[in-house]
Design brief:
- This protein has 274 residues and is of the alpha/beta class.
- Strands 1, 2, 3, 4, 5, 6, 7 and 8 form an eight-stranded mixed beta sheet that branches.
- The two termini are 34 Å apart.
- Helices cover 47% and strands 18% of the residues.
- It has a single domain, classed as Alpha-Beta Complex (2-enoyl-CoA Hydratase, Chain A, domain 1).
């Protein structure tokens, strides 16, 4: 299996995770396994203080889950340490890890890619180049990792519903206005800003970082019990013939390829031709 995520130690305490899974950085079973291993290292290493996740593809951060992976294989994956499905497990453990996780968003982060970004502690986005969205309702599915639970706290009920029910794309600057991301920056300033911020945190004491983050987690993170029912609904909804038909039409038109469909997915899920 080809490595999808390369870890670089920028300074003691500061890691950078570079994502590369051509052609469009789909999330698949190998992605989940690699992320689980990375989170395990974050939990166990007493020196790591901050990790930045960024894509080596300027057009795609994490496109979405690979819809061609056999759903039975996905459902049968062994449970993670939390007792949840490994995708839910990775996101829950990342959110609670005693390390600051930062998503540096350039390109598209939809579906599972958006769910991953939401599980990170902080999200900084390119105002011009970042695109976020939860497109699942547009194809007749329920978002599987319950991004609604995280978006409700970040954006409020009305905007959370607008994001998930509208199934549309959100540019970096609009995502900032909604609370979907912390901050949107000019594209040519994003990398320097994130690097400076990560180095700043890496210069602080791990004890203070971990303890303070843990206290924030207690009052802001959704209960883990909210997540498995959403994944159950995802599997039920994606097995429906109506959802399968919508997905098949998108695949015929270029879904999962470097195509107009993927570049403008928010528009295409609402296209009458779909």
């Amino acid at each position: 299996m080809a490595q999808q995520i390369r870890i670089d130690e920028i300074t003691p305490g500061y890691w950078r995770a570079a994502i590369s899974n051509p052609p469009i950085n789909l999330v698949d079973l190998d992605t989940i396994e690699e992320l689980s291993n990375i989170v395990g290292r974050l939990e166990a290493d007493p020196t790591i203080k901050v990790i930045v996740f960024a894509s080596e593809d300027p057009d795609f951060f994490l496109a979405h889950y690979d819809v061609l992976v056999d759903k039975a294989r996905t459902a049968a994956m062994p449970k993670g340490p939390t007792g949840m499905h490994p995708w839910l497990d990775v996101l829950a453990r990342l959110a609670r890890a005693p390390v600051v996780s930062i998503a540096s968003l350039r390109g598209r982060a939809r579906g599972a890619g958006s769910e991953f970004a939401l599980a990170c502690d902080l999200r900084f986005a390119s105002a011009e180049k970042a695109i976020l969205g939860q497109f699942e309702v547009g194809v007749g599915a329920v978002p599987g990792a319950n991004p609604m639970a995280r978006l409700g706290g970040l954006a409020g009920r009305g905007r959370a519903l607008e994001i998930v029910l509208g199934a549309d794309d959100f540019t970096g600057d609009l995502a900032e206005r909604y609370g979907y991301v912390n901050r949107a920056l000019p594209n040519d300033e994003l990398d320097d800003f994130v690097d400076r911020f990560a180095r700043r945190i890496a210069g602080f004491e791990k004890y203070a970082i971990a303890q303070t983050k843990g206290l924030v987690d207690q009052v802001t993170l959704p209960d883990d019990a909210l997540f498995p029912p959403a994944l159950d609904q995802f599997f039920i909804s994606t097995a429906r013939p109506e959802t399968r038909a919508r997905m098949a039409r998108l695949l015929d038109r270029g879904l999962q390829m470097r195509s107009e469909i993927e570049f403008e997915l928010g528009r295409h899920v609402a296209d009458p031709a779909h």
